[in-house]
């Protein structure tokens, strides 16, 4: 109604002492006018809304902290888990195991932690960051890699001690860096290499990286002559740019990967379900496909790898 024009019916109600009736009309008008689509629908106890439409379901999110060497295989297992748990989104944080422990100790939120060694898992346990008992879900081994062009002519582990060879390793607090130094220590006990073999190799060290992916990248880019990495890091894509050299069994090490629920995980049941997926026949098959040595569904403790 244009401004300044009054409704005859409302005018008569006002003059005839019908103010209560007028008030009722106005209240009814207000309620009806506010009952349109502009307001949010009210959810009912059965999961539907007051208007009869289904209430939107919140997506569950699972945050997994995992060692860098697990990047490709865990992405595939994560997709597998999402297919089997509709409405769940798995988000990963890949980094060196020591970095992951530091992030958790600083209050980072996660539900599952999977490391590349038992040492960092023990540290996480000691800091109260882990709920329950960790289990081993896979094993790995080390290999020597060189650029595809192999400019330094590296053919055996012994060649790493030659003067002028540029070696890259991860830091000692990173699992792959610690394992690499174990290989050098074992070789130093073999007369064929000499007791100072490890020292001579470390004298050729030109770079120390924070995770294994960065070590591999140095070789791919030709910034170093040789490196010790996990066998599983020599993926088909990487193999186009590097040459893999097997290590003698007597100096190589078998590495173990532990996994556990993080203390204070938002949904511990979902976290345990993901761990079960990793240890399931389907998950173990994916690990084997990527070159890991699966452990099956047997509950392998940290002590078994220490």
What count of helical segments does DSSP give? 11
Strand/helix succession: HHEHEHEHEEHHEHEHEEHHE
Gyration radius, in Å: 31 Å
CATH class division of the largest domain: Alpha Beta
Helix content: 25-40%
Q: Strand fraction band?
A: 15-25%
How many strands appear in the DSSP assignment?
Answer: 10
CATH fold descriptor of the largest domain: D-Maltodextrin-Binding Protein, domain 2
For the largest beta-sheet, the strand count, sense and barrel status come to: 10 strands, mixed
How many structural domains?
Answer: 2
Which class best fits the helix and strand makeup?
alpha/beta
Global morphology: elongated
First-last Cα distance: 86 Å
Kindly report the average pLDDT value: 86
Instruction: List low-pLDDT spans.
Output: 1-56
Keywords for this entry:
D-Maltodextrin-Binding Protein, domain 2, disordered N terminus, alpha/beta, ten-stranded mixed β-sheet, single chain, 10 strands, 2 domains, 306 residues
Q: Brief description of this entry?
A:
By secondary structure, this protein is an alpha/beta fold. It is 36% helix and 22% strand. The protein has helices spanning 8-15, 19-33, 71-84, 97-105, 118-126, 175-188, 197-203, 212-220, 236-239, 268-279, 281-289; strands spanning 60-67, 88-95, 112-114, 130-147, 167-170, 205-209, 226-230, 242-246, 254-262, 293-294.
Describe this structure in words.
Strands 1, 2, 3, 4, 5, 6, 7, 8, 9 and 10 form a ten-stranded mixed beta sheet that branches. It contains eleven helices and ten strands. It is of the alpha/beta class. The relative contact order is 0.16. The protein starts with 7 loop residues before the first helix and ends in a 12-residue tail after the last strand. It folds into two domains: 60-139 and 256-305, Periplasmic binding protein-like II (D-Maltodextrin-Binding Protein, domain 2), CATH 3.40.190.10; 140-246, D-Maltodextrin-Binding Protein, domain 2 (3-Layer(aba) Sandwich), CATH 3.40.190.
């Amino acid at each position: 109604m244009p401004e300044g024009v009054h409704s005859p019916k409302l005018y008569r109600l006002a003059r005839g002492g019908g103010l209560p009736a007028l008030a009722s009309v106005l209240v009814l008008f207000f309620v009806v006018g506010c009952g349109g689509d502009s307001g949010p629908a009210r959810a009912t106890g059965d999961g539907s809304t007051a208007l009869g439409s289904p209430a939107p379901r919140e997506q569950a999110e699972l945050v997994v902290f995992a060692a860098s060497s697990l990047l490709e295989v865990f992405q595939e297992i994560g997709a597998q888990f999402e297919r089997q748990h509709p409405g769940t989104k798995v988000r990963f944080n890949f980094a060196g195991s020591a970095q992951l422990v530091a992030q958790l100790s600083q209050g980072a939120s996660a539900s599952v932690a999977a490391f590349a060694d038992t040492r960092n898992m023990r540290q996480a346990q000691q800091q109260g960051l882990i709920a329950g008992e960790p289990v081993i879900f896979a094993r790995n081994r080390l290999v020597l890699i060189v650029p595809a062009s192999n400019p330094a002519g590296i053919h055996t582990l012994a060649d790493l001690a030659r003067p002028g060879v540029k070696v890259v390793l991860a830091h000692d607090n990173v699992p792959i860096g610690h394992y690499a130094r174990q290989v050098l220590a074992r070789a130093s006990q073999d007369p064929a290499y000499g007791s100072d073999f490890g020292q001579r190799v470390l004298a050729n060290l030109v770079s120390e990286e924070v995770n294994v992916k960065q070590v591999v990248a140095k070789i791919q880019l030709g910034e170093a002559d040789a490196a010790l990495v996990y066998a599983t890091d020599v993926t088909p894509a990487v193999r186009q740019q590097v040459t893999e050299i097997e290590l003698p069994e007597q100096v190589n090490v078998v590495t173990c990967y532990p996994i556990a629920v993080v203390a204070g995980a938002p949904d511990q049941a979902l976290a345990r379900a993901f761990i079960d997926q990793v240890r399931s026949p389907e998950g173990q098959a994916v690990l084997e496909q990527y070159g890991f040595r699966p452990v099956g569904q047997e509950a392998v403790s940290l002590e078994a790898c220490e």
